[in-house]
Amino acid sequence: MEQSLEIFDRLVRELLADEAQNPVAEYIPSANLYARLDLKLQKDGISAAELEASLKDLIFTTPRTATNGFFNQLFGGRQDKAILGDLLSVILNNSMATYKAAGPQIGVEKVLLREVCDMIGWDEKSGGTLAPGGSMTNFMGMLMARDAYNETTRHAGVHQKMTVYTSIESHYSTPKNAAFAGIGRDNVRHISTDAYGRMDMAVLRQTIEADLEKGLHPVLINCTAGTTVLAAFDDLRTASEIAKEFNIWLHVDGAYCGSVLFSDKYKHQIDGVENVDSFTLNAHKMMGTPLSCSLIVVKDKTHLKNSFSNDASYLYQTDHDEFNPGKTSLQCGRRNDALKFWVLWKSVGTSGLERIVDKQFALADVARDYVRNHPDYTDYSIDDSVAICFNYKGIPAEDICTLLYEHSELLVGYGSFREDTFIRLVTINATNEKADILKFFETLESFVAEHEDVFSKLLLA
Question: Domain check: are 184 and 138 in the same one?
Fold first, then answer.
């Protein structure tokens, strides 16, 4: 172990030093991957020195998601205290199914979830759990909605034509989850949005009424707190009124931006969250913890037990169910994803988490102001969003993003809303500063100028 820790320390120090000079790793086309890197596995082992050399080559060519050159996904940066917690969870290697296997770590998870429930405004009947990613927590929300509608489903199976409602701009996991839940992709209603990317509540109501007239069974309204492209927030207060009227479970996918819960300044974007049935957020996005750290909380925790509990005498041998979270989880063996978020929260306090969230919006304002005040840019953004959507000099977004990636300059993605496709810059990395955002635009502009001939040909094609 001492030798492995020494290797780890050397590799990390070298990586951090190199990242400071080269924020984007060497680009390796997938066609060249196995020729460029020694990834093969052999019969006999290799020496520690050979292993270290192989590891260095591998990690130095892996995309660098924590630098000021990464704006591609809805995560980024490094919160060092959260990394400390994650490293400790790896060393401890507890399974979070039982108190017998995890001990005090169960308390860590329970405190974390209790605080989130309290911040929403829920009483002691609420509770939650963690799962590996927002797709999975959203799946859990759908399963609880299905089972709450008809409690026989979890035993007899789906035997009614159930329907699910979600924004056309919502995450792609919703139709996948409907297939997994036995509801079916064809029974997901993708509701149109307004000009700001928010689900149209009038259309939602009309669609539910039409399905009821057909004898169908609406079971879930899935609202989004931070759509994937525009980072828009659905109107939770109106959605909750509709859900209450028709007795439909209301789930909020806050995987991307649900962490506005921690911000006094931006919490208004989830106004009405106390009225929903379940809510999910990813601490590995706005909070900057390492992947993955996805929380789902539910207003009435009995739904967790009803949908996910199963007796197993060989496993649950000590303590009561409150300290055996395997009975309220989709998984049995489950890594300790709570500790990294707890260490971060413990170290910086709730006010520190608020500063992390607020800074991302402040950085977004810097980027949005830059785009809106420079004539070579076309702005597609909405206000109060951590996604800045734009095009530069009329060049197709796909071309700019691809060439920046292939030349190891910047990692940034593109998205579409209605008829427009654009570069999507996300300011989810709270370790960035204003200078890093301005450097992004400087790098983009210099790159386009340097490759003017290439882009001119693309525009003429």
Answer: yes
